[in-house]
Amino acid sequence: MAAEFETLSYPHKTSEYTYRVPTPPRIVVPPPTLNSDALPSITLSALQSANFLNNINYTNLVTQNALIEWTYERRREAQMILPFLYLGPMTAAKDESFLRGETGHGVGETRVPGSITMVLGVRQKHSFESKLMHGALRKPRALGIVCETVDLANNQDLIQKFPQTTAMINDHLAQYFRQTGKTGKVLVVCESGNERGAGVVAAYLMGTHTDVDFIKAMQLVQAQRFCANFDDAMKRLLQGYWDILCATRQVAAVNESNHDSNGTVTVPLSGPQNASTKRGLQRDEDEDMDGIDEDDLERFGGRTFAPFTDQTL
C-alpha cells in the first residue's frame, strides 16, 4: 500500500504543498535605520494624555550601538530604554549603587541621572522565581523606593496585564512629578530582564507614544538592551495588544468627534438611515450567484497565482 501512495501524482497542482500543521507567519523585526553617527535613529512622540512626559528630552535617545558594543556582562545590568524607564534583571534591583545613581553602567560609563524612584517586578506566580523576586525587592524597599509586583500564571496573562503595568508606571511618574516637580525613574525587572519585563516595557512604549507600534517598540528595546528576547509568542502578544490599542484609540476619536461645540453628544443614527456607513453583507435576490460579485473581485481581482489548474477528464 505504501508503494501505491508513493506513485500518486497530482498534475493539476501548480506548486509544492506541505502537510504540516498550519502556523501563522513569523513576525520579522528589522533593524532600525542608522543616523550619521551609525546609531539607531528612533523618534518618539508622547500622547497628550501623558502631559508630564512632554518635558522629556528624546533627543539622542539611543547613545550606543548595542549590536556593536554589547558585551555579555551587560546582560546582568539594567539599561535605559527611556530617560525615565530602565529594564534589567532581578540582580539590578539589588545593586544599591545603581539604585542610588552613584555608579555608571555599560559601555562608556553611562550614569543614571538621579536615583530610581520605583521598581516594578514581573514574576511568575507560585514558583521559586516569585520567592527570588521577593528577596530581590528587599534592598529597594530598605532604601525607601516604591516597589510594585505583577504576578503571572503564564506569559499569556501579559496581554491582560499590559494596561495595568502601563497605568502603574504612569501613576507613579505623575504622582512623583506633582510632589517634587521632577521626573521619576522606574526600573522594570524580571528574572532575566529579557522576556516578560521586555514585553512590559514594549507595551508601555506602545501605550504612551503615538508613533510607536509593536515593531518599533521591539526595535527600541533591543537597540538599548540587545539581549532582550522577543520570541514568536511574545511578538504575537504585542501585535494583538497593538490591535487593541488601535481599536481603543479609534473609538475614542469617534466619541470625541461626536461632541458638538455645546458639549452635547451626537448619537449616530441607526437603522436604514445609517446603513450606508457600514459595509453590507446582504445580497440582492436577483443577484447572479453563478457569476463573480464585487466582493470576490475586491478579494481576488489582483491575484495572479492559482493553486490548481483546470484538468480535462
UniProtKB/TrEMBL annotation:
GO terms for biological process: negative regulation of SCF-dependent proteasomal ubiquitin-dependent catabolic process; regulation of ERK1 and ERK2 cascade. Residues 284-296 have a biased composition (Acidic residues). Residues 160-225 form the Tyrosine specific protein phosphatases domain. Residues 257-296 are annotated as: Disordered. Residues 260-279 have a biased composition (Polar residues). GO terms for molecular function: F-box domain binding. It comes from the Eukaryota. Pfam families: DSPc. One of its GO terms (cellular component) is cytoplasm. InterPro entries: Dual-sp_phosphatase_cat-dom, Prot-tyrosine_phosphatase-like, STYX-Interacting_Phosphatase, Tyr_Pase_dom. This is Tyrosine specific protein phosphatases domain-containing protein. It comes from Recurvomyces mirabilis.
